[in-house]
Amino acid sequence: MDRNHLSPSDFIGVQGKGIISFGSGQPDLPPPELVYRILPTYRDFRYGTVQGMPKLREALAREYPRSEAGNFVITNGASEALDLALRAIGNKPGKKKSLLLPRPYYYSYPPLARYAGMKPVYTQLVNGRIDFDDFEEKAHQCRAMLINSPSNPTGRVEAIPTLRKIEKIASDLGIYVISDEVYKDLIYVRENYLIQGPHVVTINSFSKTYAMCGLRVGYLWSLDREMVNDIIGMKSHTSMNTNILGQEMAYEATKVPKSLVNSQIKIWRERRDIIYDGLSALGLELWKPEGAFYVLPKVRRPRDFVWNMHKKYKVITYLGEWFGAPERVRFSYALDKEKIEEGLKRVKKYLESG
Amino acid sequence: MDRNHLSPSDFIGVQGKGIISFGSGQPDLPPPELVYRILPTYRDFRYGTVQGMPKLREALAREYPRSEAGNFVITNGASEALDLALRAIGNKPGKKKSLLLPRPYYYSYPPLARYAGMKPVYTQLVNGRIDFDDFEEKAHQCRAMLINSPSNPTGRVEAIPTLRKIEKIASDLGIYVISDEVYKDLIYVRENYLIQGPHVVTINSFSKTYAMCGLRVGYLWSLDREMVNDIIGMKSHTSMNTNILGQEMAYEATKVPKSLVNSQIKIWRERRDIIYDGLSALGLELWKPEGAFYVLPKVRRPRDFVWNMHKKYKVITYLGEWFGAPERVRFSYALDKEKIEEGLKRVKKYLESG
């Protein structure tokens, strides 16, 4: 590990005695039992259709408006859904090659844009939310925009009027919208607002809601059938069907009662309060998370903070720089409250020491 | 389904009463029991490392010369390994942007090259094998070459002296070699010859050897650590870890005795003989398969053949055109011998009818 070239892959999956990881964004809660109850007798390991298991797509269609199974593609996590959507959009003919990205952003967005031959154009968040005037001005030069509400890393949720204005401008200008809504079931302040429109591609996942991160089952939804078909054609060469057993487990997850999902919100909100109050009490400037499970406080000398917290205090945090927020560090609070509290004690010690 | 725009995705996964599918390349044999014996008690669904499960990579390292776990990346099937390798090579700086491809080729190669910003340059196979003079001449203009021995769709295996010459020219010219060896355990005529060199990326898979197609676990191996690191960096954004349960099952597969794998060769050879002798007896011109499980006979009016065999005779075959062989059709003989024989009877009827 090199102090001057830290990256998330230095920390992903790092575990060990006494380590408290506020690093990767992974629920610590176990998946619902329904999800793995099928394992003992499962036996079909043959290719599936590239678009994804029909019964899984049919189950999803019941959750989305004006939809049928044909509007979905099941992918290797939300990551592959994003990658395929960006590549498909990047391959379209046309001069505009820019992707509008609110900043701070999830760290994979800029490289995925570049891999797809698109140039990221940033609009700076103000107080953790989209500044619509700046957003609108920059949208004109872009082929697509990427929205992520609730946001990783800010934990913020966009106001519904802002999302409505984004829908309108996208539709008026004929711009693609990629809406990464993987935290749709983890909002503390309201129901999720599903962004809609003729050229919207919504990205989602079973990872966060059902604690199935390692199984890598995500999906995309779009009413733009041409886009869906482009993506299926591409996926038939780039990865073929998504792991068939993961899809079967995701199908079981669709049967989990919503009440179970909603009951977890209570746990997440309690954790949110502990970390938000704790970091605030330490004098750090931060936005109050309204969804997902991240906080992004300002700290002095963030690289020293991340390095020393890890090396001296066995606490993993992520550099805000990776997310386009160089003055900040990211904490994921997907940990039980005892660990969050212990982690906060160590942060306090560090801050007092220097 | 449109007669004039047929594609493999019209046929992948198509099953039904009375249908005989010589279509997709999927073993009909079940996976070894070892592979799924872990399912009943498996419970860890968290993120894994992007590069792949260490114990799986360590097991692979014991099968490859001069290797350690760091030389491998576990991927979503061989498809993702190919896609990542091509994208990583395509992203390197330099003027040459061409990929040398022997033709007929596996149908995903040209689109994957284009998605990666590379231009396919073809060298025509002669009697199903590489014409080294033409190959060598074209290699000079290329950044990379893609070798597939045993080949899908030809079923041919390259002569070892040819492979040695390819290793030398690649090394002399500093050209990347992608060697797709997914059929390495399905060769009737000799042991596999592992192509080696400083910039070789070998693509492999658990799909064919262990009948695990739907689980999508493949891998790549390279002694070029910079390339391996580029690919891990890319995969950390494009899909993260490969399905964790699939990897665990692949690890179990590495414990399957080689004798079991080798005993399957006998079954494949018997099938090869039935289809080769059968199609030859019908007067079709074809190359004798030496590996994999495909034959690529010449037929008159291939589109009529594929369409009518499917619609009137319930036999699925693939258009040679998809593989760069417009005068031919591809049969996969991953079927039990009774089905192969029944399929051959129907082909005979069709040929006699018109």
Query: Using only CA atoms, what is the Rg of chain A?
Result: 20 Å
Summing up helix and strand content along with how strands pair, one would put the structural category of chain A as alpha/beta
Assign a percent range to the helix content of chain A.
Answer: 25-40%
CATH class of the largest domain in chain A: Alpha Beta
CATH-defined topology of the largest domain in chain A: Aspartate Aminotransferase, domain 2
The strand order across the widest sheet of chain A is 2-8-7-6-5-3-4
Strand content of chain A: 5-15%
Distance between the termini of chain A: 23 Å
Query: Which protein chains make the most extensive interface, counting residues with beta carbons within 8 Å of the other chain's beta carbons?
Result: A-B, 54 and 54 residues
In round numbers, the mean pLDDT of chain A is 95
- What gross morphology of chain A would you assign? globular
Low-confidence region ranges of chain A: none
The CATH superfamily of the largest domain in chain A is known as Type I PLP-dependent aspartate aminotransferase-like (Major domain)
* Second rung of CATH, namely the architecture of the largest domain in chain A: 3-Layer(aba) Sandwich
Oligomer: homodimer
